[in-house]
Every structure is written in C-alpha cells, then in structure tokens.
C-alpha cells in the first residue's frame, strides 16, 4: 500500500485533494444563519398548524441546538458527528418506509415528517453557505407541504412571516455569494460614515408589500380549474371494524341518552326517549334529521359549530340520507333493513358504488371531506356517488341512496367521493314521462289517508289559480311535472312564512297532522316543514317525491379553497323522481334558492366573486347594483367563453385541433397587442424626456433591436468606440457622435447641435433600411 501511495498518480491525487483551490469557505455570517434557522422553524411550525401535529416540540429545540453546534464547529472535520448523522438518516428512512405502508393514499404528512427529521440531523453539520441553502430549501418545501394540508386561515400569518424573513435572507445570501464582508445594518439613527449597507429596510418593506399585493391580485384573478386529475385522493389512515357490521344501525352521538347505545337507530332525535312524533326538544349540537326517523314535532335551535370542511370541484348539496315514509309528524326510512354492504380491496381505499342510471348528461365531481366535529355514521356526499375513498374496509348503501359507515365520522377523518352528477336540463325534464315503475309508486306516493283528499284539493286549487296568482312572474304553462313542482315550491316560499320566533311554534297534538296544520292552521312553520309539505303535496297529485336531509354548501373560504360547513347548515328538501333521468332536488324554504346549487353554477372565477362580495358590502346599494350589472355581464361572458374553450378539448380530434388553432391565434394576437402597447409606451416615455436624452435612448433601442445593445457596465463613450467593431463606419460615426454629445450635455453642461444630430440620425436609419432591402 505504501508503494502504491508513492506512485505519481496517487501523489497527484493526494496533492489535488489537499491543495484544491475550489474548496468552499465556511459561512461566518451569524445573521444569515439566524435567518435561515428562522425559515426552517417557520416551515416546521406551519406544518404543525396545518396538519395538527406536534413536530415543533422536539424539532425546533433540536434545530436550534444543532445550528449553534455547527456554527462553533464549522471549521472542524466532525467525522464522528457525520457518521452519527448518516446512521440517523438511515433510521429515519426506515421509519418513513414503515409509515408509508399505512398511508399509501396520501403520503404528504409522512414525507413532511421525514423531511423534518432530516433537517434536524442536517442542522448539526452546516459549515458552508451551500449547506445553509439546503436548509432554506427544506423550509420552503415544508411551507409548501403545509399549504397543501392547510384548511384554515391560520396558515396565512406564517406565509407572510416566511416571506418577510426570506427577503433579507436572499439579500444576505447574495452578498455571501459575492464574497462581501458583513457590515453594519442600515438604521435611521446611524446614517454616518462611508460604511456599506447590508439591508435597506425601505427597499425590503416596499418589495414585501408589492409581492403580497401582486400575489393577492393573481390569486383573485386565477381561474379555478377542475383539479384532482390524479387518482390518488386524500383519505385517513385505515380504521379496523370491531364486531359485525350490518349497515342497519345509525350511530348518532347526539342521540346517546343515559349510556344507551343499543337502539340509536330508533330514537326520535330529541331529548326524549319516546316514539317518533311526540313533543320534545331538539339537540343543540346535532341535526335531528340524521336518523332512521325524523321527528318534526321537536322545537329548539342548534348552537353553531363547524362540523366539516369540503374541497369540491363544484358547489353542491352534501346529501346525507333520504326518507320515504311520511308519519304525520315526521318521516322514517321504511326499508331500513334493506342495505347493501360493499367491501373494498385490502390493497386500496377505493370502493366502487352503483350510481343511478340517468339519460341526462353528467359531470364527474370530486369532493374531499375533512370532519372537524364528530358526526353520525352517515357519509355526506354529493348526489350520484360512483366511487368513494374511505378508511374502513367496507360501507353500506341504503334503499334511499344514503352511504353508511361502520363507525362514526370522528374528528380528523378525511375521505374523498367521486360523483357522476347529472345536469338539470329544464327542457328535457319538462318532457319526462309520467309513467312510473312499481318500485317508485309503491314507496314514494304514500300519504296518510285521513289527509290525502284535503291536501290534494288544496294542491289542485293552487295549480288551477296559476293564471291569477302569477307567482314568481312565471309565464311558463303548467303542462309538465317539472313546471308544476317549480310552481308549488315557489308558491310555498311566497305565501307561507317562518315564524319570527320559531321556538314559540306550538307542538302538534296527538292526532294533529303536520302538513294539515301547516297549510290550514299556522300558515307556515319551521324551515324543514316547508320541504315536508311540498313532498306530501306532490304525492297527493301523483308525483313521486321523497325528503332528503343534508348540508348546504357552507361558507366558501377563497384563501383555502374550502367550504366551511356548520351544523346549522343542515336542512331537508324535496327530491322528485323523473323517469329515465332520476331524482332532482327542489328547495321550497324561504330565502333559499329554488334550485339547490349544483354543477350548473360556474365556479371558474369564484375567488374573484367572493372578493367582490366582500368589497360590495362596503359600498352603497345603488353603486353595488350598477357595478354588479356591468361586471356581472362581463364575467358571465368570460366564464362562458372559457368553459366553451375548455369543452373543445373533449370533443374528439376535431375539437382538439380547433382548440389548438384558437389558442395559437389568441397567443399571437396577445403578443401583437403587447408589442404594440410596449412600442406606444416607449414612444410616450421618450416624448417626456429632454431632446438629447430622447435621441440617445432612441439610438440605444435601435441598436438593441439589431442585437448589439449596450452592456450596463459600459459607459456611453466606451460604447461609442466599440460600435466601430460591429457597425458600418458611417453608422458607427453617428452612434459615436451621439454618445459624445450625450456625455457633454449630461455631465459637461454643453448644449448640443440637436438639429444636426437628429438629421444625421434620420439619414443613417434611412440608409441602413435601404441597404437592407437591396
């Protein structure tokens, strides 16, 4: 070995290793190290807040200790420490691979934990600026992971803090790259001497505000294109089922009374244990309708609280369950025993469902739900679900197309649903047949006999008076089921009311019927009573209908892109069956839209719409109305044009070709418009300059267009001399003369012969153009 070491090749290698001039110098700037550490800490804390984890308790203190250690040992070789770091990294990798097996469907949090562990180890060996760059990048990646996991605005302050720290970090990093020494930071109290400046706070604050403002503007104008193009959706870790799951029981945490959990599917939904229909008080946390029975003889109000957050490609009604049997004081599921259990593969979270067959055009909508507060084992989903990514190995589907889980939807649970939602085509539904199959007539035309005749007469009377009433100023004739449903729903909205104090609405007597009392006695009732009345009225004239309960879309947060859903967003509405097309919902509740929000609502520029709604709240009503009409028309046209353009790419090869041609034409016209605008802007700017300055700038623009522009480091005189190497002699003389005249005017105060210079300039351009043409 000694002989081999003495060989010339080995000697050269050893000398190169020991005397290499490219060895990077250690980073001595304490300020830069502190700022980089702050970026990493912000990234770790942001991940904790977004994912509701607790990495900060051990990662932040260890990162601080490691950074201090590495600063004091930055000039040492630290071989033993590096070996320990390598072993620690291997252990972290093994732990990550173990976690990965249980989180195959959403690996973001596992990757973030691995990255935090690697960063903590890395903090113990960061002697060079390049190592600090790695830490900066890790902090940025952690912030990006937190952004994808965040569902609240708690992430926003950390994003601003990260930006505020990143700007001076980049300045110091750039100075370090240039090899400049660190000097005193600028301060208004110490503007003396000739010392250099490290940080210009005015410049940093201006850039911070400009970046934030520009980011918010881009965010507001950015179209919300359909996402989830990959089939890897967010879902919680697997949940094991204890015991036998039949799917028949509805487990609602709000209905557990005195420790009795055996008959939760049969309770009335209030604070009484009596049978459905008895007077009682509504639970103040959980919606009374999420049960196998809905007792509408309850009174009370819920205390608002957030129950889930939804990320969806379209606005929608988050449907929970349906009811087919009217009891006189509420509803029940008559076929609660008829449930279909569906299992998933042990290797996938994906469960395939059987969506209703519909002749209507449909659209695939992906929704991801994150449960914030405990919910029943009923799974909210948009209408017509076809796939669900759920953490349990199986679930059940009831006869009313409701999804049931083996366990309660506990806080923190995440699942994803893919729905094939049909479009609501008013023309097609108006032509739908009135011949219903027995499976529909047997269950969705049921009415208690004692009220059937009276409700039917009242319904027919309302329809017969259509021409006199003109509810909703409609000119449509009531010659179809769809128009009759719309009219009756609108009629209830306008002719019946919700009491100012719903708590004082009297309870129903033992033999009193809800619909009859609503129509003929109280002239109104609770919001859900409107839906019950519409459903029974439709059944009385032979139109199949059922009651469905679920959540309104909730409040959209434009900064997180999620719908915040509260328990008070739960309500019931009516679904009507149309042969060949399936079930469609109608909402007769006052102050609710007649047609519940669905895929027909264009959400391309919804963020901008939300921002405008916030601004409009501060403006006078006349101004708001005018601006709404103007900008509403503009954005409606833009949205339709954008949607039409996207639809071209789903119409075969001809559509794709047409779309590409249009995109190319639009890009060319945009470039042409930009070029012309920039040319006009330059001319306008030149006209505002002094004549000599204007001529000099015109010359620089002309030479730049020729590909021979002036380098920023060159003085005008240097550029004039070097122009002889790139231009014809006559052209170079004119350029040189203009440069000399500009320097004499700018720095010497001599008045140039401007008329002669301009004449030479115009003549030179004409000569050059003539030579180019020949």
Tell me, briefly, the overall form: globular
Q: What Rg is obtained from the alpha carbons, in whole angstroms?
A: 36 Å
Biggest sheet, open or closed, and with what strands and sense?
7 strands, antiparallel
Termini gap = 76 Å
Return residue spans where pLDDT drops below 50 for at least 5 consecutive residues. 1-23, 181-197, 226-230, 257-274
Strand order of the largest sheet: 9-12-15-10-4-18-17
Helix count equals: 23
Mind explaining what this structure looks like?
The protein has 23 helices and 20 strands. Among the domains are: 26-187 and 198-221, no CATH class; 429-559 and 567-602, C8orf32 fold (Roll), CATH 3.10.620; 610-648, no CATH class; 689-773, no CATH class. Mean pLDDT is 82; it is low at 1-23, 181-197, 226-230 and 257-274. β17 and β18 (562-566) form a beta hairpin. It has 774 residues and is an alpha+beta fold. The longest helix is centred in the C-terminal third of the chain and has 36 residues, at 652-687. The radius of gyration is 36 Å and the shape is globular. The N and C termini lie far apart (76 Å). The strands form 5 sheets. A 7-stranded antiparallel sheet has the order 9-12-15-10-4-18-17, with no helix packed on it. A 4-stranded antiparallel sheet has the order 5-16-19-20, with helices on one face. Strands 8-13-14-11 form a 4-stranded antiparallel sheet, with no helix packed on it. It is 47% helix and 12% strand. α6 runs antiparallel to α7 (129-149) and α15 (514-522) crosses α16.
């Amino acid at each position: 070995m000694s002989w081999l070491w003495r060989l010339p090749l080995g000697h050269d290698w050893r000398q190169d290793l020991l005397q290499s001039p490219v060895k990077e110098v250690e980073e001595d700037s304490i300020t830069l190290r502190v700022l980089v550490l702050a970026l990493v800490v912000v990234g770790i804390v942001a991940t904790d807040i977004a994912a509701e984890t607790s990495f900060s308790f051990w990662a932040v203190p260890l990162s601080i200790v490691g950074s201090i250690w590495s600063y004091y040992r930055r000039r040492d070789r630290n071989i033993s420490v590096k070996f320990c770091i390598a072993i620690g990294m291997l252990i972290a990798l093994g732990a990550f691979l173990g976690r990965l097996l249980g989180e195959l469907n959403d690996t973001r949090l596992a990757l973030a934990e691995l990255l935090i562990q690697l960063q903590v180890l890395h903090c113990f060996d960061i002697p060079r600026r390049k190592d600090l760059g790695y830490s900066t990048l890790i902090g940025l990646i952690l912030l990006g992971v937190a952004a994808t996991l965040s569902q609240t605005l708690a992430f926003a302050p950390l994003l601003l803090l990260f930006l505020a720290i990143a700007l001076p970090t980049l300045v110091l990093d750039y100075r370090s790259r240039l090899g400049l020494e660190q000097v005193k930071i600028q301060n208004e109290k110490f503007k003396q001497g000739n010392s250099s400046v490290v940080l210009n706070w005015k410049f940093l604050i201006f850039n911070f505000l400009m970046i934030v403002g520009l980011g918010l503007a881009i965010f507001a104008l950015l179209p919300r294109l359909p996402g989830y193009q990959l089939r890897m959706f967010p879902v919680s870790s697997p949940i094991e089922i204890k015991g036998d799951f039949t799917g028949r029981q509805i487990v609602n945490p709000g209905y557990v009374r005195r420790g009795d959990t055996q008959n939760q599917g049969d309770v009335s939904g209030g604070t009484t244990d009596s049978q459905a229909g008895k007077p009682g008080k509504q639970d103040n946390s959980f919606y009374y309708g999420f049960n196998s029975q809905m007792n509408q003889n309850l009174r009370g109000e819920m205390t608002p609280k957030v129950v889930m957050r939804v990320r969806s490609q379209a606005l929608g009604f988050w449907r929970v369950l349906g009811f087919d049997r009217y009891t006189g004081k509420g509803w029940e599921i008559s076929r609660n025993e008829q449930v279909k259990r569906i299992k998933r593969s042990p290797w996938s979270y994906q469960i395939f469902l059987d969506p209703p067959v519909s002749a209507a055009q449909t659209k695939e909508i992906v929704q991801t739900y994150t449960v914030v507060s405990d919910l029943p084992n009923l799974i909210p989903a948009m209408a017509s679900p076809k796939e669900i990514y759920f953490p349990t190995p199986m679930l059940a589907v009831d006869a009313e197309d409701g999804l049931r889980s083996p366990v309660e939807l506990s806080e923190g649970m995440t699942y994803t649903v893919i729905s094939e939602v049909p479009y609501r085509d008013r023309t097609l539904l108006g032509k739908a047949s009135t011949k219903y199959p027995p499976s529909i007539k047997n269950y969705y035309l049921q009415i208690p006999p004692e009220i059937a005749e009276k409700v039917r007469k009242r319904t027919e009377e309302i329809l017969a008076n259509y021409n006199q009433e003109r509810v909703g100023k409609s000119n449509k004739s009531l010659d179809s089921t769809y128009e009759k449903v719309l009219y009756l729903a609108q009629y209830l909205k306008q002719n019946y009311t919700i009491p100012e104090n719903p708590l004082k609405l009297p309870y129903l007597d033992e033999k009193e019927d809800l619909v009859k009392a609503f129509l003929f006695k109280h002239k109104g009732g609770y919001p859900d009573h409107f839906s019950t009345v519409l459903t029974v009225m439709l059944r009385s004239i032979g139109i199949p209908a059922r009651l469905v309960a679920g959540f309104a879309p909730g409040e959209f947060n434009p900064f997180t892109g999620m719908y915040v859903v509260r328990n008070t967003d739960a309500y019931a509405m009516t679904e009507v069956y149309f042969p060949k097309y399936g079930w469609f919902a109608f909402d007769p509740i006052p102050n609710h839209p007649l047609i519940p929000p669905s895929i027909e609502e264009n959400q391309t520029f919804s963020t901008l719409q939300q921002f405008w709604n916030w601004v409009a709240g501060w403006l006078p009503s006349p101004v708001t109305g005018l601006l709404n009409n103007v900008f509403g028309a503009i954005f409606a046209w833009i949205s339709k044009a954008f949607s039409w353009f996207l639809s071209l790419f789903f119409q075969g090869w001809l559509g794709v070709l047409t779309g590409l041609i249009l995109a190319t034409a639009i890009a060319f016209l945009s470039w042409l418009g930009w070029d012309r605008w920039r040319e006009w802007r330059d001319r306008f700017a030149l006209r505002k300059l002094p004549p000599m300055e204007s001529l000099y700038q015109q010359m620089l623009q002309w030479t730049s267009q020729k590909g021979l522009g002036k380098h920023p480091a060159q003085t005008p005189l240097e550029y004039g001399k070097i122009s002889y190497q790139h231009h014809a002699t006559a052209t170079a003389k004119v350029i040189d003369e203009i440069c000399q005249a500009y320097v004499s005017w700018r720095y010497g105060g001599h008045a140039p012969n401007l008329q002669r210079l301009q004449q030479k300039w115009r003549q030179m351009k004409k000569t050059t153009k003539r030579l180019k043409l020949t």
